[in-house]
């Protein structure tokens, strides 16, 4: 049997409580499945210290980002922006995840917008990559992203489900997209069409673990883990008319480019 393809996971929540009991085993299973690098992102401030410690423990395996997800902005403790700034100044860390979510109760709030702009500004100030969650609010998000024209920081639109018309514009705006479990579903249509149309060099693979468990693992397991990234790579390869080896290589190159400002060492 040939060894598994080397895969890079562009978006994973390793500080999530659902990994607290067995994280070393989760990482060992990911490595055994061919995962050579994981970008671990924060959802809220409670994740930051755990991620910082993990980044020191696995310097050649993990890239780390700190941020405030739009779902947690309303409950964030005052002064989080200052504490985030201090952390970013302390080492090679990315920003995220941040973004806008128009589908949560109440829709996009001014606090969400302010937090998104603040984190894009911090990414620019420190020249760090920024990971973005977008659901709904597409026109507004596009306006904010285009305000950054001439910005140097790289932006990853994770679990991309937005307008196909954005795809030809990615390079011009320093944007990347990543795809997770959605293209693996037997009834997937839109995610496959987006994956097929995304320009080479701008596409990354992600688990979004512990959420978005890919098919067929989602039949038995509710918790996703990066060891299942191979299924996502296969679905993406089929959608793009590539071999899984091509998809693995292209997405790894894009991963290295995107995460360069968020890691201590190049991936193995
Ligand atoms: Zn996420």
Outline the secondary-structure elements.
Layout: E1 7-12, H1 23-32, E2 35-41, H2 48-57, E3 62-66, H3 80-89, E4 94-101, H4 110-126, E5 130-135, H5 138-147, E6 155-157, E7 175-179, H6 190-197, E8 203-205, H7 229-240, H8 244-259
Parallel strand pairs: 1-2, 2-3, 3-4, 4-5, 5-6, 6-7, 7-8
Bound molecules: zinc ion.
The site of zinc ion (ZN) has 6 residues, from loops.
Rounded mean pLDDT score: 94
Enumerate how many helices there are, as a single number.
8
Beta-strand content? 15-25%
The level of helicity is 25-40%
> What oligomeric assembly is this protein in?
single chain
Secondary-structure element pattern, one letter each: EHEHEHEHEHEEHEHH
Q: Into how many domains do the coordinates divide? A: 1
CATH superfamily: Metal-dependent hydrolases
Low-confidence stretches: none
Q: What is the CATH class name?
A: Alpha Beta
* Largest sheet descriptor: 8 strands, parallel
Small molecules in complex: zinc ion
Describe it:
It is a single chain. This protein has 268 residues and is of the alpha/beta class. The protein has a single domain (7-262), classed as TIM Barrel, CATH 3.20.20. The protein is built from 8 helices and 8 strands; from the N terminus they run βαβαβαβαβαββαβαα. It has helices at residues 23-32, 48-57, 80-89, 110-126, 138-147, 190-197, 229-240, 244-259; strands spanning 7-12, 35-41, 62-66, 94-101, 130-135, 155-157, 175-179, 203-205. Strands 1-2-3-4-5-6-7-8 form an 8-stranded parallel beta sheet. Helix 3 (80-89) runs parallel beside helix 4, helix 6 (190-197) packs across helix 7 (229-240) and helix 7 packs across helix 8. The mean pLDDT is 94. Zinc ion (ZN) is lined by residues 11, 13, 41, 97, 133, 208.
């Amino acid at each position: 049997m040939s060894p598994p393809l080397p895969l890079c996971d562009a978006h994973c929540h390793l500080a999530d409580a659902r990994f607290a009991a067995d994280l070393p085993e989760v990482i060992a299973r990911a490595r055994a499945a061919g995962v050579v690098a994981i970008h671990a992102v924060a959802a809220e401030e409670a994740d930051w210290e755990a991620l910082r410690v993990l980044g020191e423990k696995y310097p050649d395996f993990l890239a780390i980002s700190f941020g405030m997800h739009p779902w947690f902005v309303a409950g964030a403790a005052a002064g989080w922006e200052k504490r985030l700034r201090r952390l970013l100044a302390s080492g090679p860390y990315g920003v995220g995840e941040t973004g806008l979510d128009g589908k949560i109760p109440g829709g996009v709030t001014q606090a969400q917008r302010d937090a998104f702009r603040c984190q894009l500004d911090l990414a620019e100030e420190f020249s760090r990559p920024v990971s973005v969650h977008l659901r709904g609010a597409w026109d507004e998000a596009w306006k904010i992203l285009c305000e950054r024209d001439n910005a140097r920081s790289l932006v990853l639109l994770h679990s991309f489900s937005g307008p196909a018309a954005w795809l030809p514009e990615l390079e011009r705006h320093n944007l990347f997209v990543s795809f997770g479990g959605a293209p693996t579903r037997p009834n997937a249509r839109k995610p496959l069409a987006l994956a097929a149309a995304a320009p080479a060099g701008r596409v990354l693979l992600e688990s979004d673990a512990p959420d978005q468990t890919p098919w067929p693992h989602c039949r038995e397991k509710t918790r996703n883990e990066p060891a299942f990234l191979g299924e996502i790579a296969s679905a993406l390869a089929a959608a793009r008319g590539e071999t899984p080896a091509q998809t693995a290589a292209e997405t790894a190159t894009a991963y290295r480019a995107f995460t360069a400002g968020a890691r201590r060492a190049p991936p193995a």
